[in-house]
Amino acid sequence: MIEDKNQQRTSIAQLGEFGLIDHLTKQFEISQPTTVKGIGDDAAVLDFKDKKTIVSTDLLIEGVHFDLAYMPLKHLGYKAVAVNVSDICAMNAKATQITISIAVSNRFPLEALEELFSGIAIAAKVYGVDVIGGDTTSSQKGLIISVTAIGEANEDEIVYRNGAREKDLLVVSGDIGSAYMGLQVLEREKQVFLVNPNNQPDLDDYTYLIERQLKPEARVDVREILEKLEIKPTSMIDISDGLSSEIMHLCKQSNVGCNLYEEKLPLDPQLINVCEEFNIDSTTVAINGGEDYELLFTIKMEDFDKIKGNPNFTVIGHMTQESEGIHLVTRANTRIELKARGWDAMTE
Q1: C or N terminus of the chain, fewer CB within 10 Å?
Q2: pLDDT for 36-62, tens place per residue?
């Protein structure tokens, strides 16, 4: 966390807006057959022929969504792409293009933006998406990133939030809660650094949690895995705002209730150890922490045999009649009404 004071700093003003755009976007190559025209004109041109177009957009604001005290700019660029690709994955669609817009203050030199766009370029290559446009402007303070993701899917492949039915099984990919605890570790080390700037953090025991926070991955593999299993989810959402919040979204949109089982929650061993260190209940972290970017979905009960034992997925509950409400069933078999205590952009 010690900053190198001797870094080269090139003023953005030296390039001007169009020079900056040319400089930062020259590394982007076109790979998608649906991209007719990318960066370089008044608008991009796409051709999806018979497929449906999926569009999602997100804002990342310094001081609200990220802290540059511990978020490297290259990681931030990667994350900005991944979290938007995740929204396309949550529709059971394939991400194909993105646009990137930034508002940046004069405290950022050209080299800082090169780092940011390096991460964007790496993510674009990993996820196979074309960067086809965007905008740059000035900011009074801080950094703002806006990403729009575009994807494609056949109409019969798309999965919405409103398709869950009573007796459907609730399934989650991967593990949950780790990104939140990664953030807690980073915040703790930041406070130590502010007291003693010469202190170098020892993060060896927290590598997985920190990676889940700083470099999350969109679950682009889930669509293909489910297709091979011959399973089409009845509803789906990605876990950005916390498991409890996402369950409540599915229930509200689908007019159903839910029983979520505490003993079924998939927790990484490192998460459990660090929760003990911080004296935080791991179940609370798992259901309320956000930014896991795993996929939460429902399937028909008759598809259980196809999915059971698959290492990518965990059945964590089932849907009920709407009148039964939304509950966490504890290990002691006590039913607790589930509350949305995850991230809320309007209250944080």
Answers
A1: C
A2: 877 666 666 778 888 999 999 899 999
Reported as type and span, the H/E element at residue 17 is: helix 16-25
Per-residue pLDDT, 348: 46
- CA atoms of 75 and 247, how far apart (whole Å): 29
- The bridge status of strand 94-104 relative to strand 295-299 is unpaired
**To 5 degrees, how large is the angle CA 180–CA 159–CA 221?**
55
* Contact between residue 300 and residue 236 where contact means Cβ atoms under 8 Å apart: no
**Residue that has been written with the tokens 């508002």 in this structure:** 103
Q: How far apart are CA 297 and CA 231, in angstroms?
A: 11
Nearest of 170, 245, 216, 224 to residue 75 by alpha carbon: 216
Q: What is the pTM of this model?
A: 0.89
| Beta-carbon contacts of residue 149 (< 8 Å; ≥ 6 apart) | 55, 56, 57, 58, 84, 85, 87, 88, 95, 97, 98, 129
Query: Is the separation of the CB atoms in 160 and 91 below 8 Å?
Result: yes
- Please tell me the distance from the alpha carbon of residue 44 to that of residue 278, in angstroms, as a whole number: 48
118 backbone dihedrals φ, ψ, rounded to 5°: -65, -45
Cβ proximity of 85 and 128 under 8 Å: no
